[in-house]
UniProtKB/TrEMBL annotation:
GO cellular component terms, A-Z: membrane
Protein's organism: Halalkalicoccus paucihalophilus
Pfam family, one: Yip1
Keywords: Membrane, Transmembrane, Transmembrane helix
Location relative to the cell: Membrane
InterPro entries given in the database record: Yip1_dom
Protein name per its UniProtKB record: Yip1 domain protein
Residue ranges occupied by any Yip1 domain in the UniProt entry: 25-190
Primary localization: membrane
Length: 203
């Protein structure tokens, strides 16, 4: 499912420093980032990046939830809170995040088939989705406005990445990314729930 290219052409710097630089660059200069930071066949850095984002968001949510079990955002098994959290993180990092990333990339590739004859490969799509999750670190903040902005910007980064990598116009990229973006950012990262919470406060 993943491939690690030892000396990719382009691509991202490895290690914590590379992840931190990628996070800043994709947030501030997404077009340039996608042009120079995506390497064909080199999925692993994008996958690792997405797992780090999910883990950071989960840790932030856990930290802001307080120490009580009641109201915790994670299930507690047998009153073993730390063990339960470690188990949940392991499942997210090892299974859920990679599976969702690759399923979404497959769906996006299928949607691109009739409309992007000069499209790049599936591995590039995996990387685009992985790096587009950068703002979603902030979904761990229990404020609906922050969560909605974070997931909304993630969807925008997704569209920009598809536009840059697969050579489709922005309007077409927006249309073709609608379903995958809704699945990842609306459902997966809770964007729809945050928007619903916001709307309920103004009724």
């Amino acid at each position: 499912m993943t491939q690690w290219v030892e000396n990719p052409t382009g691509g991202r710097e490895r290690g914590p420093r590379g992840i931190a630089r990628a996070w800043v660059e994709v947030l501030l200069r997404p077009r340039r980032f996608y042009r120079v930071g995506i390497a064909p066949g080199d999925q692993a850095p994008g996958l690792v990046f997405a797992v780090c984002v999910v883990t950071a968001a989960s840790l932030l949510r856990l930290a802001l939830a307080g120490e009580t079990v009641v109201g915790s955002p994670y299930p507690t098994l047998g009153n073993q809170r730390l063990l339960s959290v470690a188990l949940v993180f392991s499942v997210i990092a090892a299974l859920v995040a990679p599976l969702v990333l690759h399923l979404t990339a497959a769906l996006q590739t299928f949607l691109l088939l009739p409309f992007a004859p000069d499209r790049a490969g599936v591995s590039e799509t995996v990387q685009v989705i992985g790096y587009a999750t950068a703002p979603c670190v902030l979904v761990g903040v229990p404020i609906p406005a922050v969560q909605a902005l974070a997931t909304g910007y993630g969807a925008v980064l997704f569209v920009i990445g598809i536009h840059e990598i697969h050579s489709v116009s922005l309007p077409w990229a927006t249309a073709l990314c609608a379903l995958p973006a809704a699945a990842v950012f609306g459902v997966g990262f809770g964007g729809f729930e945050a928007i619903e919470a916001l709307l309920s406060t103004v009724r």
